[in-house]
Amino acid sequence: MACSWLNSCLLLLCTLLAVVVSGSKRNLPIIAFDEGYTQLFGDDNLVIRRDGNTVHLSLDERTGSGFVSHDLYLHGYFSASIKLPADYTAGVVIAFYMSNGDIFEKNHDEIDFEFLGNIRGKDWRIQTNIYGNGSTSVGREERYGLWFDPSNDFHQYSILWTDSQIVFYVDNVPIRKIERTVSMGLEFPSKPMSLYATIWDGSDWATNGGKYRVNYKYAPYVTEFSDLVLHGCAVDPMNQSSKCDTTHSSQAIPTGITTSQRIKMESFRRKHMTYSYCYDRSRYKTPSPECVPIPQEGKRLKSFDPLTFGGGRRHRGKHHHQSHSSNVEGSSM
Ligand SMILES: *[C@@H]1O[C@H](CO)[C@@H](O)[C@H](O)[C@H]1NC(C)=O
Ligand SMILES: *[C@@H]1O[C@H](CO)[C@@H](O)[C@H](O)[C@H]1NC(C)=O
Fold first, then answer.
1. Which of 36, 91, 206, 326 could join 31 via S-S bond, C-beta 3.0 to 4.6 A?
2. Residue range 260-296, pLDDT digits in tens
3. In this structure, which residue's CA is closest to atom 3 in ligand 2?
4. If you measure from the C-alpha of residue 54 to the centroid of ligand 2, how many angstroms do you get, rounded to a whole number?
5. Is 187 marked active-site?
6. Read out DSSP for 90-140?
7. What is the pTM of this model?
């Protein structure tokens, strides 16, 4: 019968699809939550799903929530599939980042993915940033829109950190590469860091510079983390011994950017970048030495926000350096 033929074709198609979908993840050394992480705060606002690989973090009137890796890592590849809360999310911040701030209070390092919520009908934005050796007076933020709605489904966000470069990826597309330059010195993160994931109330800055705050009428705000990857050298800061994950070396883990990926990255940045510290003349009279201006990028940012990126009139002598990336969310939504 035609219908049974159709059924077996559908079944075959589904099987093929399932193979393709899991194939891209099969090679990743995914670990269960309990194997690699521990709760940081938020009591029962952190929920581990039954499969042990998916974690829900929520924010309500009482608290946000978060988790942290058991180990500190010196270099590696760190990744998670993340689904963000939908609808009205202004003021909500979800951070997926590496830091050693609890060990090195004065000279900490940090590598950040920050997701900034928005009012209904406006898209989430992503911010990336790094600090090294406590360089919080120099924020190296970039912000972008995305080519999909990150609250519809899980998407993979990854950080590659080596001694010479840091690459941020979204669904395996590199969106930013930071190369270690001589002028950066220790401002390039170079000490072991833990991996963190948190959701919290960033009302004072996250959306339109604090104009739109978290509205707890829409709480709880729930984000889901899955496919957690910690692939690197775990370092014991007490005795400096390190334990590298070499058993899981696989093709799914990038070691750098290929030519075709570089083309994708440049295309992403031309289309989706909405802020870069390298072009922000209202914060930095002269760009950091590692900034290599690309005329197309600068021109596009200027068309968004001539005041910030134009390099025109400034309020002289009234310039305050910001102490944390968190404070620099601009007026562009
Ligand atoms: C790192 O930070 C410490 C503490 O602020 C400072 O004393 C030191 O000079 C910095 N080192 C470098 C190489 O920048
Ligand atoms: C040093 O670190 C290793 C690996 O983390 C650990 O197994 C060992 O017990 C540590 N030794 C001491 C003396 O702390």
1. 36
2. 999 999 999 999 999 999 999 999 999 999 998 888 8
3. 241
4. 30
5. no
6. TTEEEEEEEE-TTT-SSS--EEEEEEE--STTS--EEEEEEE-TT-TTS--
7. 0.85
